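Memo to structure team: turn this sequence into structure tokens by end of day. - J.P.
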Amino acid sequence: MALKPFGDMLRELGEKREESAPNRHRNRTEQCLTFSKLVLNPRIAPILTAEECEHIASCADYCQRMIALDWRARCPENNILQGYAIAGENFSLKHAVGFHLGQDRCAVCQAKIDAFRAGQ
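Reply from structure team:
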């Protein structure tokens, strides 16, 4: 019995996984923005439509989670943290900030939020 080359075995495994993989995240809806548009959001906010902004604000399970996952690589900008410190539960990205603080336990961002609240 001849053994398959290792590269062929890996390629077949990848093809099987690709066939069985879902087309999208289970929490992503038709209204959800693409990941690239979500993570660029703070820098390109002027080009988002009002409907997109409204959707992001209401989409805790996918859109805001994807934003928070991107913050693992680089924390949110100070204006986002200041907005959260001031508005709290009324802040449009409250779920993303909450995920970043709660799940990722970012002490740097928590300290900034505390400082913004103390300076109000």
